[in-house]
Amino acid sequence: QAGALGREMGVSVYAVGGFVRDILLDRPNLDIDLVVEGDGIEFAQVLSRKLGGRIRMHKKFQTAVVILPDGQKVDVATARLEYYQYPTALPTVELSSIKMDLYRRDFSINALAVRLSPDQFGNLVDFFSAQKDIKERNIRVLHSLSFVEDPTRILRAIRFEQRFNFRMDRQTERLIKNALNLNLFQKLSGGRLFHELYLIMEEKEVLACFRRMDSFNLLQVLHPLLKLSDQLESILSEVERVLNWYRLLYLEPNVLSWKVFMLGLASSLDDAQFQILMRRLNFSDKDERYFLAVREGLAETIQQLHQWQGRAGSLSELFFILDPLPLESILYLMARSQKEEMRRHISLFLTQLKTQKVSVTGKDLKAMRLSPGPVYSEVLRTLHAAMIDGKAVDRNSQLILAGE
Ligand code: ATP
């Protein structure tokens, strides 16, 4: 549809970037990126109208996002010659605008395009030997100033390397080292740095990315005391194991993996140092408070769990110890537990206790003419505990409990 519309409007339309890369790699990718040689915004407006979607425009960047009725997003960008003035740019007269658009991208494997116009539909546009790099499993930058232009590409290179099991070529690796020697990474804004780190921490192979970062001394750039010691490596490896276990169960809610990894990464830092790291990454005050509170809560919970184990407490007590904690905190606790028994208990909480719902609500209590007040939560808690501990509870006994 996009290609046909392009022809109607007299512009060339291409699918580009990760979408094309993933087709060649035979991997799923639902983010569609289009580049239009012409007015991308106007094209996006007409496309959105035709497909019954919504549109968000960024006129300054000549880009738009079309959100289709099924929720699918299509990014539309404008390729224009005068747009890209790079120190390394080839003579512009020689370049078509799609070539310029691809040239400013991070790696050859992300600089592929596919023509969508009906007469040339599906033709691959490969100016930078991307197909060869995909075949040879290479991550390669397009020009020698790439990391100087944008040091976040260093983390992107590491992320793609580990995700696809590719390898940077020697030149790309050398250019990363040069950029790091120039301290370019230090100049990156916290927000951009965190965004790339966040993307890494939401990948499957997080530990492998951290290992690779450490090989470039990049953890120390985040915080001078961060180093992938054997201890930190084993903590992160346990975090990864626990997260994989949780994801495989398809439990609700979804876990925010980055938060669990962040707790692991900061495990060797005290609160003041952790705060320095969070400030470097431009965390919001809210996130800062969240992490500090979680760390404080963890110490307390560990103590409560030990006591609970010591006195062979009931399952409902276990439930009420863990239930107030955020999921990420519980999974981190599981990863840090040395004893198998403790892990089993946490796993029992997540897979069975947490998923049981009390069917009685405050409304039911009201219907039973119990006058509202703090007693409600006490009654509900007692019912919940009874349910967890396996006591049969029927409506009558609820009344008895309510009268207690
Ligand atoms: P993912 O599968 O992780 O979403 P992606 O390749 O689709 O990977 P995006 O971050 O969505 O990555 O970016 C889309 C495209 O934009 C990339 O394929 C790449 O061509 C280009 N791109 C993104 N970030 C940069 C960057 N920092 N420098 C140059 N090009 C970039």
Automatic annotation (TrEMBL):
Question: Superkingdom, according to UniProt?
Answer: Bacteria
Q: Give start-end of the signal peptide.
A: none
Q: Give the UniProt family note.
A: Belongs to the tRNA nucleotidyltransferase/poly(A) polymerase family.
> What protein name applies here?
tRNA nucleotidyltransferase (CCA-adding enzyme)
**What portion of the full-length protein is represented by this chain?**
472 to 875 of 897
